[in-house]
């Protein structure tokens, strides 16, 4: 197990190195150049262009640029081209904003999907099963942004609360309890929206997985032992049904960055997804590349954690 | 002797897309205390469904028990509340299955899985249960059981797993062991070991065994009584001696004459013509009629009931009074025939 862990860790490092090269090239291959930001600007002379390219090392060969970029990233000197702020500081602030949405959304998703999926599987063909199936397909079919507008309309009218942004302006001096409530109200819609699609999909997976497990021979054996249905399903069944979700659990990590672009845009949530989107539009290479790199690290860390968790929960896997 | 388990007119149906399938259609069985009843039949004839019905483990839906009663010590198991049924499963009636490879839960150690039954049915602490688990694993022939209780099922061979299943089924000293084709998935040498083990454990504890198999050789070696099942009915039942030396139902006769006999050469083996009927559309009257050499008009009109032809020997054929192995040999001219005269009586 230790040798697997060490080997896997180094494999992931090598993978990360290649990802860094490819994501660097992809950004440079994409149409548009940072030096062409505003060719119509009369103050932007050809001399400026040269100066600009020199300033940002754009005149150097690609491999030098690559080296400089990652050197700056790891030494913490990397600055955004747009506002000359340190990239890591900008990202850190945005990630903290996104983290709240991500945590609450994921918590809702996972804590609702399992009860729904399991009950549907155990009562296959019942009204609850068909109803939850119907709702799941509705949620999968309706695009998130459309659903968001309907929800905004409903919530704002029904409760008369602000829902756009992270907090209401001018609340800084209000009592603590009001500030907390304000934050919570702002968080409700985006986190529910983030969760809904996930619940729809995940509860279907859970149902399918549970259905497969309860028809296994060892479930019949457990019944034949005289265990009650609850013990059979929740101890012998669920434990096995959970195995594949351990993998999925590792893979939700990257969702912190990629999963929230649309929702953050709709709700004007100052999160990392929206920042990535804006950086791409502005050709702010240091920001794009850093976010790319962090995403890659999250994906690899997620799979690494899944592998380790798998070894813990499934005795058949000893690597 | 009063039977410990008595099945009266059991009927089990399955709802399928094609309609109602009668998997078990009114069967009667009796198991005497300390005896072994062999239940023999082709795949799909309802053997396993019968076994599962005894413990009420028929998956429902689609299956349901539509009639009859299963009396264990005079108690009708089919009428028991769930809670009482759970107390009987694993405690009074243990069961082992055909597929040892998949019948154990892959994520728990075998020790934990056996301990679970002991702690469920007997008031034992965890350490007492563990001690008992080690003892019973030793009894079923698992080497160094105190180490093996920490093993997971995937770390054991098929034969070992079946031993573990037996240990689990017997851990609470049940009155009855239901063995649903316990050796089908194992290779021949292991089969013999497992059967021997069951036999010796039975001698020791005096439990009754319901042994389901499609191997007549196994029945001859293990059982004292035999019931032959065909298309969800019992077609013939009796003591091993009755069935093996004096079969009276054309299906039983067909089965015996289709078994190759070592040492006899020349001639073709007998083949029962046709194939097993689909439970969704059984033939009218006797279900064996379309494949039977003795079929007559009466067989279409009326399904023959299981009738006693001699003391303790029953057959479900209108003509079983007249059909026997001599008539059969005359009619089929089969070269080899397992039933020899020496075995008679």
How would you sum up this structure, described in words?
The complex is a heterodimer of chains A (319) and B (345). Chain A is mainly alpha-helical. Helix content of chain A is 74%, strand content 0%. Chain A contains 14 helices and no strands. Chain A has helices spanning 2-29, 46-55, 62-75, 87-122, 127-141, 144-159, 176-214, 217-224, 229-241, 243-251, 255-258, 261-266, 272-281, 285-313. In chain A, helix 8 packs antiparallel against helix 9 (229-241). The radius of gyration of chain A is 24 Å and the shape is globular. Chain A starts with a helix and ends in a 6-residue tail after the last helix. The model of chain A has no long low-confidence stretch (mean pLDDT 86). Chain B has 345 residues and is an alpha/beta fold. Chain B is built from 13 helices and twelve strands. Chain B has helices at 47-54, 82-88, 100-103, 110-121, 126-139, 145-148, 158-170, 188-205, 216-222, 240-245, 250-257, 297-301, 325-332; strands at residues 3-16, 19-32, 36-41, 63-72, 75-76, 93-96, 176-180, 208-213, 225-230, 233-239, 307-310, 313-315. Chain B has an eight-stranded mixed β-sheet, with helices on both faces. In chain B, a hairpin with a 2-residue loop joins strand 11 and strand 12. In chain B, helix 4 crosses helix 5, helix 5 packs across helix 7 (158-170) and helix 7 packs parallel to helix 8. Chain B is globular, with a radius of gyration of 21 Å. The A-B interface holds A 125, 215-218, 220-229, 236, 239-240, 243, 313-316 and B 52, 55, 57, 59, 61, 82, 86-91, 94-95, 97, 99, 102-109, 116-117, 120-121, 152, 154, 165, 168-169.
Descriptive tags:
heterodimer; A: 319 residues; mainly alpha; 74% helix; B: alpha/beta; eight-stranded mixed beta sheet; four-stranded antiparallel beta sheet; disordered C terminus
């Amino acid at each position: 197990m230790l040798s697997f862990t060490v080997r896997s860790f180094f494999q992931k490092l090598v993978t990360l190195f290649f990802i860094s090269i490819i994501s660097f090239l992809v950004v440079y291959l994409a149409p548009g150049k940072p030096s062409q930001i505003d060719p119509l600007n009369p103050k932007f002379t050809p001399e400026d262009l040269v100066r600009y390219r020199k300033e940002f090392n754009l005149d150097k060969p690609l491999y030098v640029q690559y080296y400089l970029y990652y050197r700056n990233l790891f030494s913490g000197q990397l600055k955004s081209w747009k506002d000359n702020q340190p990239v890591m500081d900008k990202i850190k602030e945005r990630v903290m904003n996104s983290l709240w949405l991500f945590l609450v959304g994921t918590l809702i998703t996972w804590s609702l999907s399992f009860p729904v999926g399991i009950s549907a599987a155990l009562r296959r063909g019942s009204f609850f099963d068909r109803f939850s199936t119907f709702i799941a397909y509705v949620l999968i079919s309706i695009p998130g942004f459309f659903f968001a507008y309907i929800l905004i309309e409903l919530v704002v009218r029904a409760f008369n609360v602000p829902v756009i942004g992270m907090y209401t302006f001018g609340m800084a001096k209000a009592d603590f309890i009001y500030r907390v409530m304000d934050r919570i109200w702002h968080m409700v819609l985006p986190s529910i929206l983030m969760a809904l699609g996930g619940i729809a999909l995940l509860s279907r997976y859970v149902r399918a997985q549970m259905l497969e497990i309860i028809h296994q021979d060892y479930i019949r054996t457990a019944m034949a032992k005289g265990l009650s249905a609850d013990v059979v399903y929740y101890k012998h069944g669920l434990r096995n049904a959970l195995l594949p979700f351990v993998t999925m659990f590792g893979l939700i990590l990257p969702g912190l960055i990629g999963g929230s672009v649309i929702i953050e845009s709709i709700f004007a949530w100052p999160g990392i997804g929206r920042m990535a989107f804006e950086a791409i539009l502005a050709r702010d290479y240091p920001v794009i590349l850093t976010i790319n790199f962090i995403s890659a690290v999250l994906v690899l860390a997620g799979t690494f954690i899944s592998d380790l968790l798998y070894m813990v929960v499934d005795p058949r896997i000893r690597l | 002797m009063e039977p410990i388990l008595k099945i009266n007119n059991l009927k089990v149906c399955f709802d399928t897309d094609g309609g109602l399938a009668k998997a078990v259609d009114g069967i009667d069985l009796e198991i005497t205390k300390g005896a072994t009843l062999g239940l023999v039949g082709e795949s799909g004839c309802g053997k396993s469904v019968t076994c599962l019905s005894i413990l009420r483990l028929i998956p429902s839906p689609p299956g349901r028990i539509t009639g009859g009663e299963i009396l264990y010590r005079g108690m009708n198991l089919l009428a028991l509340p769930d809670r009482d049924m759970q107390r009987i499963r694993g405690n009074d009636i243990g069961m082992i299955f055909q597929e040892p490879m998949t019948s154990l839960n892959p994520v728990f150690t075998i020790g934990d899985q056996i301990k679970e039954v002991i702690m469920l049915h007997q008031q034992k602490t965890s350490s007492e249960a563990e001690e008992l688990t080690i003892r019973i694993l030793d009894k079923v022939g698992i080497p160094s059981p105190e180490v093996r209780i920490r093993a997971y099922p995937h770390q054991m061979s098929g034969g070992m797993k079946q031993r573990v299943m037996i240990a689990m089924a017997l851990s609470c000293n049940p009155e009855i062991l239901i063995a649903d084709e316990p050796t089908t998935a194992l290779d021949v040498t292991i089969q013999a070991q497992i059967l021997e083990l069951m036999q010796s454990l039975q001698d020791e504890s005096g439990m009754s065994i319901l042994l389901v198999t499609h191997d007549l050789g196994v029945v001859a070696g293990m059982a004292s009584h035999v019931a032959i099942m065909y298309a969800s009915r019992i077609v013939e039942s009796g003591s091993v001696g009755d069935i093996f030396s004096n079969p009276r139902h054309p299906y039983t006769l067909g089965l015996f004459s289709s078994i190759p006999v070592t040492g006899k050469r020349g001639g073709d083996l007998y083949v029962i013509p046709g194939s097993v009927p689909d439970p969704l559309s059984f033939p009218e009257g006797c279900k064996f009629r379309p494949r039977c050499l003795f079929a007559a008009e009466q067989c279409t009109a009326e399904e023959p009931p299981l009738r006693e032809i001699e003391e303790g020997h029953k057959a479900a054929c209108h003509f079983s009074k007249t059909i026997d192995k001599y008539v059969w040999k005359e009619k089929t001219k089969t070269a080899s025939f397992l039933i020899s005269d020496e075995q008679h009586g």
